[in-house]
Amino acid sequence: MSEPASTTRHCDVLIVGGGMAGASLALGLARHAPSLDVAVVESSPLDPSVDPEAQFQPSYDARATALAYGSRLIYEDLGVWPELARAATAIEHIHVSSRGRPGTTRMHASEHGTAALGYVVDNGWLGLNLVSALQNTATHWLCPARVVTAETGRNSAQVLVEQDDRQQWWQARLLVVADGGRSGLREQLGFTASRRDYGQHALVATVTTSAPHGHQAYERFAEGAAVALLPHRGDHDYALVWTMDSAEIERRMALGNDAFLEELQARFGWRQGRFEHVGQRHSYALALEQVVHPVRPGVVLVGNAAHSLHPVAGQGFNLALRGLMRLSSRLGKAAGEPLSLGQPEQLASYVETHQQDVDAIVGFSDGLVRVFSEKSGFPGRLRDIGLAALDAAPGARNWLAHRNMGLNTRRSSLGHD
Ligand SMILES: Cc1cc2nc3c(=O)[nH]c(=O)nc-3n(C[C@H](O)[C@H](O)[C@H](O)COP(=O)(O)OP(=O)(O)OC[C@H]3O[C@@H](n4cnc5c(N)ncnc54)[C@H](O)[C@@H]3O)c2cc1C
Q1: H or E stretch at 356
Q2: What does the pLDDT average to over 205-223?
């Protein structure tokens, strides 16, 4: 039984969820809006005072995220990139192909004058370093603690936080909901999200190939499925993201390791030699979810609580991060203005700019899923022509590479709302 709430505490911004999105926003606010008093409430136990290296157990089974080159620039701006880079694997080349069909396209970092097209980072390493960096800021880090309930008004939000069996009311000028895709608060506050089920699952695991990765990533489409291999830590290790019809997922999750590797080999082919080892497998149901109006008086939704997309293009978190930097920059400006932080007028320009980015990335990822999910017929032929044409047209390839690198929208990502 927790003790009842005592006196109310106050802050300018209260962020619910200190995951990748919430922690990045808190760092963004410390950088772009240092005068604001910010609190983050995170339910999973993470101790920012302990060195990430001592807390992080590098494991073959760790899940990873592909950060676009533009996200590296954002983390440089926030001062955390040098630490993140210590365990990041550069993606220098990307090979996109369609199994058993003619078109392919290749992208190389050297064509864009950058050290890499992107980087693969263990989610655990990313999270710990973000939270550790927060220690050098004035942010209140409430963890492990959980938001039990929240109410919003025109100029503020009231949030009930439970920590160490004690309940405490917080009043914030702005509540930021960053509690992930299964956001309980989103529902509780009455936000509605559109949802389209793809009828697909992603199977995620670390795999080892006989040939070294040489910083080469692959995206290989075959009969309604996509196999993405992202170079990961060891010279022969890849983070695998295999999207497939939901009807296949249970069987593939249950296969013995040898049988699983055989099926993967048959799907992907031999371009990386033999698939020799697979770690623990995880599966995720895939849907496109978007909250139509993510801002209301006193509250804004960010990260997966606001939008989650198909992982085929590895864009979900990169998109969220650009939005978080826009939001922190906007709040930095709003901090010195007479209007209250929580009034929607304050956030109108952020909403408009970020929505354009969301529409473009959702359109791109969703279009990719549609074209590559077709097993035959017109979209299949379109895909062959598209890949071959892309390879032959450097301008279009550059455009695609820049979009994937998060550079098309970079100006607005670093604080120009
Ligand atoms: C298979 C797969 C592969 C992907 N690969 C990529 C990729 O390569 N590149 C990319 O850019 N994106 C990728 N994504 C998307 C990316 O994983 C998400 O965008 C990202 O995890 C969203 O982070 P978040 O912080 O919004 O949510 P979460 O990571 O879910 O964090 C939410 C946090 O809120 C906390 N919380 C929840 N409720 C409460 C509460 N009541 N009180 C306090 N705390 C609470 C949780 O403990 C958690 O820490 C992928 C997604 C999938 C499914």
Answers
A1: helix 344-373
A2: 93
